[in-house]
Design a protein that fits this description.
single chain, hpI Integrase, Chain A, 13 helices, 2 domains, mainly alpha, three-stranded antiparallel sheet, DNA polymerase, domain 1
Amino acid sequence: MTKYIDEFMNYLAVERGLANNTLLAYRRDLSRYCLFLDESGRKDVRESDHKDITNYMHNRKAGGLSVESICRNLSAIKMFHRFLVREGLAASDPTNLIDMPKSWKRIPDVLTVKEIEAMLHAAQGRQAQVIRDRAILELFYASGIRVSELVDLKLENVHLDVGYVRCMGKGRKERIIPIGKRACEAIRRYCSVARPRLAKDKVTPTLFLSRLGKKTSRQSVWKAIKHYAAKANIKKEIKPHMLRHSFATHLLEHGADLRCVQEMLGHADISTTQIYTHVDRERLKMIHQQFHPRG
């Protein structure tokens, strides 16, 4: 079964251009699925039927997997079987009769404008890493960029004179995102003051560097966000995409067009962006309850 997974991974990487993190998730899901089939007596994934897949989904649910994760598992399995049929490796697709489980879309957690400002204020100092972190936070909130996209940015991707960044998103899709004056100022200060110290005379195209002069990791960015949130005395549970969620929510709250926000976030489907309108509705509901005489 591993042979077919390898061929599918190669197809996703070469023809679909999926990111490494997505490929790893797909491989993990499919390896677990094939292991289940093997333990159930199926020695060839091409022999599986819809009952096998349904049993696997029930098994994952019994193991405590969330509906969202089950949907992601099933999506990978559906793509895998469609690939096998298209390549002539299997005669039929057993997932044709299986529908995706229905799930509620969770309203994303966001920070208020005051909380964002408190975080940015907490990232002040003359140390190279603090100057870098301030630039990261400013860029994060100004662009709504993903963590993986941020750490992959090169110097040539940032155009401070005209105020935009160019990044490569999911599916190797490039997009242009405008950034504001304060983000430009923070990045400019980082590049002139802190980055040369972190680079230690090394020549590297990567924008954000670690204290060792290497590319900053996603884990380091995540730790920095939590650190400055704690320093700003923010009591909310801080999650990786919170600044991205806040970026989208604050834009919509101030009247931004949904299509423009979709483009800046790099969402393929506008329904993914629409979840942020629910956040705004929740805020309006709270205001109504608080101030209406019969709220």
